[in-house]
Design a protein that fits this description.
This protein has about 180 residues and is mostly beta strands. It has helices at about 125-135, 155-160; strands spanning about 30-35, 50, 65, 70, 80-85, 90-95, 105-115, 115-125, 170, 175-180. The protein has two helices and ten strands; from the N terminus they run E-E-E-E-E-E-E-E-H-H-E-E.
Length: about 180
């Protein structure tokens, strides 16, 4: 699994929670992650899995970013972590992420266990991101015009396409599962 940049919007917060939406509007998205040892494929229990991403309009909580045009200092929506269970699993309830200038649609994640830390990003199929951004509220306020496709995102290119989520429609919106193999 390729390790990718943490990015400028990580906050080390003690937010243990499954539902990270805090009422942010957007298409419901359930993300299930399984953490396994890359060598043995055995589940890794007790690993902290952090996720964070922008909202439907491309803003991150907890930051002031004059270039992107937002100030959300003191807020912590769309952020959280959980510890993996005995099967190496965690699940988050969130929203489909929006986009901002210069990046493809993505979700950041970090896995921590003992002295090991692994940081990377999940990506989304471009056609699905365009569909969500053009047809669903509040994403349609921005639409998909100007959204950077995966193949033009330098961080995505470092992933060799290995971190694209297989997103499926669900009863309420969308869902994806992903298995992360880490070196223990």
């Amino acid at each position: 699994m390729p390790e990718l940049t943490e990015g400028p919007y990580y906050l080390d917060l003690d937010l243990v929670r499954r539902d990270i939406t805090e009422g942010r509007p957007g298409a419901p998205f359930d993300l299930a992650v399984t953490v396994v040892d890359a060598d043995s494929c055995a589940p890794v229990a007790g690993a902290a899995v952090d996720v964070w991403h922008c909202d439907a309009l491309g803003e991150y909580s907890g930051f002031q970013d004059n270039a992107q045009g937002f100030n959300t200092v003191g807020e912590d929506w769309l952020r959280g972590f959980q510890n993996t269970d005995s099967s190496g699993k965690v699940a988050f309830t969130t929203i489909y992420p929006g986009w901002y200038q210069g990046r493809a649609t993505h979700i950041h994640f970090k896995v921590r266990k003992d002295n090991m830390e692994f940081t990377s990003q999940f990506f989304f199929d471009d056609a699905l991101s365009d569909e969500v951004n053009d047809n669903e509220s509040p994403y349609s306020q921005k639409g998909s015009s100007g959204r950077l496709p995966n193949d033009r995102d330098g961080i995505y290119q470092q992933s060799n396409g290995m971190l694209v989520l297989d997103v499926q429609p669900s009863a309420d919106g969308y869902a994806a599962t992903f298995t992360i193999g880490i070196q223990m």
